[in-house]
Design goal:
The complex is a heterodimer of chains A (about 210) and B (about 240). Chain A has about 210 residues and is α/β, with parallel strands linked by helices. Chain A is built from seven helices and eleven strands. In chain A, the strands form two sheets. Chain A has a seven-stranded mixed sheet with strand order 7-6-5-8-9-11-10, sandwiched between helices. In chain A, strands 1-2-4-3 form a four-stranded antiparallel sheet. In chain A, a hairpin with a 2-residue loop joins strand 3 and strand 4. Chain B has about 240 residues and is an all-alpha fold. Chain B is globular. Chain B starts with a helix and ends with a helix. The chains are: A alpha/beta (about 210), B mainly alpha (about 240). The complex binds S-adenosylmethionine (SAM). The site of S-adenosylmethionine has 18 residues of chain A, from helix 2 and strand 6.
Chain lengths: ~210, ~240
Amino acid sequence: MIQTIKNRTYTETKDNYNHYGEKVIKEGGLYLREWSPNNSKIAAAMRKGFSLKLKDNSTVLYVGCSTGTTLSHIADIATKGDIIANDVSMESMIGLLNLLKIKKNVIPILSDFRILPENKELNKDKFDFVFQDVSQKDQTDVFIELVKKFLNKGGQAAISLKTRSIDSSKSPKQVLVKESEKIRKAGLKILKTIDLEPFEKEHYFLEVSF
Amino acid sequence: MNKDNLQKQFVKDLNSYLSKNKEIINAVKALEVVNYLTTQSNSIFDYVYKWHSLEYPELYASCSKDNSKYIKTILELESSKKDSIMSGSIGNDAIEAIKSLCNLFLDFEKNSNKLKKIIEKSAKVAYPNLSTLLGPILATKFISQVGSLERLSKMPSSSLQLIGAESALFKHLKFGKKCPKYGFLYLHPIMQGLNNKQKGKLSRYFAGRIELAVRADMYTKNKISEGLLKDIEKKKLEIKKTQ
Ligand SMILES: C[S@@+](CC[C@H](N)C(=O)[O-])C[C@H]1O[C@@H](n2cnc3c(N)ncnc32)[C@H](O)[C@@H]1O
């Protein structure tokens, strides 16, 4: 569950842990871990109007999980559904080891996100929330493919676009227009477009569905 | 999905990563601890010095301001009570407390030395060229600063020159302060005897050699550091002549 107290956002969990130095408040038998928009793009997007539809039994495909800053909050909320956590860098994923001990429903996959659709283990799976944050040139194309293959009907998908990684010769706005066009042409809907300023520079957060 | 299969695959990936990179991982971890122990033992030293010098202020100078020697001398003086120079004006309790702190200091030093051996050994295996150029500790500092040998190997020498000067570089870019000319490299003994301008010049040259050393460590595994070291010595002499 997400809680907001005095303009700060927290995720509620029964696990007493601290993943990356975030503030933790004890409340009854539960712990509230601060989810700051300065540390997490999803938290930043929520500040600017995105509403995350995650439930305790939601399943999640998280692409570009890195050391698990944002992932840890997602795992606080989705406590029962399977959460696939993907990254290409083991160096980063080592940062997940502690979290994996606490959140048994998080399943790590080390691989290039481009070959996730071919992963035999995932072949028949659908997810309620698909999120991608990888800062790669072809991130939108792969995102479209991932959404089409893995998003559940009625599910929620989101992508964080780092415009500089996509095309540094164009303005962020131009990149956004081009990438949005791709998404629409692929038959997907863009429900929200959020500029992540002042939390992130030259980043857009798009909420997408069928 | 078959969760078991995925978990097993990840454990396999993790283990293969660890066994491939264990030297670097161990060196970086050991260095973190060495830094911690150093900070701690410096403050322990401060406490001992401020306390013990109330009674015997000249002792530090008579140990040539060598911290470790100073601590050992205190312990020697205080354990042979007979020839104790200490009149005991700060009292036995204080002396006992100071002795414990001295032992703590030596304990930290011992641990730190053990860890430095690990760093040396690992550096020799995983990045022998960089380690010869910079010494194992500084070499490890470079790697831990950017995160991995691979990342280091992809950096141009202009960036390598400024590793360790990130905050000065930031101030330069943001507030137009002077552009830094060297980072951790100023810690290298070869910089001794040079003025700032010369250090800047040598750093630039040095960084170019570091680039070659790192690439050799990452890709060809050739041992090229002896030649590089000679190049740097030669360059230093040249630079010294310029002013
Ligand atoms: C900006 S970080 C993600 C931060 C994370 N989402 C958070 O908020 O805590 C981007 C991540 O994408 C990963 N990445 C880059 N290329 C990738 C690829 N080809 N496949 C999978 N992950 C990749 C990087 O290793 C990095 O950890």
